[in-house]
Every structure is written in C-alpha cells, then in structure tokens.
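Box 4.2: Ligand-aware structure prediction
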Amino acid sequence: MKDIVFSGIQPTHQLHIGNYIGALKQWVHIQKEHHCNFCIVDEHAITVPQDPKALRDRILTTAATYLAVGIIPEKTTLFVQSEVPQHTELGWLLMTIAKIGELERMTQFKDKSRKGGAAGAGVGLFGYPALMAADILIYDTTLVPVGDDQLQHVELTRVLARRFNERFGETFVVPNPLIQKVGARIMSLQDPAKKMSKSDTAETATLFLTDTDDSIRKKIMRSVTDSEALVHYDPEKKPAVSNLMTIYHHMTGETMKDIEKKFAGKGYGDFKKDLAEQVIQHMGPLRDKINHYLTDKTELKKILDAGRDTALKNAEAKMKVVRERMGLGR
Ligand code: AMP
Ligand code: TRP
C-alpha cells in the first residue's frame, strides 16, 4: 500500500550538502513509491527573528532547490505552507488540546530559548510543534521522513492525534516517523564534532548548494583534517577525513575501501583536490538548475500554484470534518 508522506524544510538559510545527502536525496527516492507532500515551512521559519526580504528570497530558492534535485511536481505536491492557511487554523485547534508541560519538554524549544530564557521566548517558538503536528495530520499522513532531531516532534504529533480521536471521534491518522539511516550525517568542514548546519557562523564550515566552483574548492582545501596524513575511514579516530570520505562516497558511489585504495600513498592535498572536483562535477549542474528556476520564475510559479491548489483542496476537506467534530461554526 502507498504511504502518504509529509516533510518540510524551513527556508531559514540556504540549503547545504548535508540537507542534500541527508534529506533531499531520500525524498527523491521516496516519491517514486508513495504519495508525497513536500512543503516549504515558512511559518515555522518566523518563530525566530527574520528579515522579510531574505525570507521571501529563500522560500523561492528552497522551492527551486527541491525541483533541481529531482522532486517531480506531477508526482509530488510541492507547496509553501503559508499559502494554505488551514495549517495555522489546525495548529491553533491542536494548541487547545496540547499541554504546556508537553511543549516545555521539547528539546528544540529548550535549546532555542536557552539564550533569553523560556519566559522571554516567543509564544510561536513554544507552540511550533502544534503547527508541525497540523502540517502532518491535515493530510492523513502515514509517514514522516525527518532527521532524528525532529523525532520528538513527530512523537508529540502522535500523542495529539490520539488525544483528538479519543475526545472527538476517529479523525486523524496516527503517523509514523521515518528516520534516515545513520551515516547520512554530514559534519562541519571546520569541526567534525558538529553537524554541518545552515546557520554555522564559521565561513568555510558549510558547503551550500549554491556555492560557486571557486568557493567549493576554497572550502574543501581549507577543511580541517586529522593528524596522520592517511586517507582511511575511521569515524572514531579520524572523524575529519571520514567525513570528507562520506561526502566523496555520496558524490561518486565509490565505497570507503575503493577510496582508500585510490588514495593509498597520497596525502590529504591530493585527496582534497579530487574531492573538490567531484563535488563540483556533481553539485555544479544542480546549482545551475537552481539558478535556472530562479532566473526564469514562470515555471516555478506555475508549479507552486498547482501545489498550493492541490494542498488547499485536501486540507480544506479535512478541516470541514475537524470543525464539525469540534463543534465550531454553525
Ligand atoms: P534543517 O537544516 O535542520 O532544517 O534540516 C532539514 C533536513 O536536512 C532534515 O531532514 C535534517 O535531518 C537534514 N539535515 C540537516 N543537516 C544535516 C547534516 N549535516 N547531515 C545530514 N542531514 C542533515
Ligand atoms: N520542524 C522541522 C525542522 O525544523 C520542519 C517541519 C515543519 C517539518 N513541519 C514539518 C518536518 C512537518 C516534517 C513534517 O526540520
């Protein structure tokens, strides 16, 4: 049986090679078998301070990136969250059944509110998981592919679905998380103990999908390595080189053993030079496609309009039932 899939990425920063290897590549694969909804969750992005112009640019860049990696709009509903207002409507309804204690336990909220303290954090940041639950539940989603950092939010989604069903009658499908395989985690080029991240402040830590060839070369040549100059895969003892090898593997399909053999007797310099060329060869065409969608926006607009219309239709059908179950309106 086909699954109904929902996942989303926040358009807070440019997407990077970790997003590509850890999430987007898998989405492209999943869409072949299942019915997918892939969303640009711009309303989640405003739970932390945002510059409106930058946000709008990134929404479009993110959409162009989904398409460039191979999301097929005929197979998949690709849309922008804020264009389907039923998400925020259901988000509010779910907030009335979520508990303060449940939301306070979310580690992402604890992390993001740590700086200013929970009392000073925005209510939107606090209620964020209820909106995420709404994204998922409104489409009768059965499967949610996410990174392990989002598992807690999917679990809360399951709790809210069950609670709603108990109170108001069977309405929501209880979805399952799909956690990506281990080994798909790409680390910072400057600190192999840290996940590669959109918001890393170190300039050369993150390989963005829109980086120029020169910038890719510069970042890879300047990446940190381990002491012994040997291209050998050992994530415990040689985390930096193992991370670079993981990227090499995902670019070429070559196994770690193949890569070790290829660079036996050579130093890190040769390995990095070749890695940079592999990344350029594989990610260059992707960047050009992203730029193509961004320079000629007609196609992009058409695709996002169609995605919005499909999502609106499905979301509104569900909301009719939900409003009635809860006794809202007349
Ligand atoms: P984020 O960039 O945290 O919004 O995550 C968007 C998606 O990309 C999630 O499914 C993450 O698990 C995945 N992702 C983010 N960073 C990495 C990384 N460094 N390596 C692998 N996957 C990642
Ligand atoms: N919270 C997710 C993240 O930060 C993004 C997201 C929003 C999401 N709504 C979703 C992911 C629904 C999966 C399903 O990565």
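In the box above, the bound molecule is tryptophan. Residues 213-292 form a domain with the Tyrosyl-Transfer RNA Synthetase fold (CATH 1.10.240.10).
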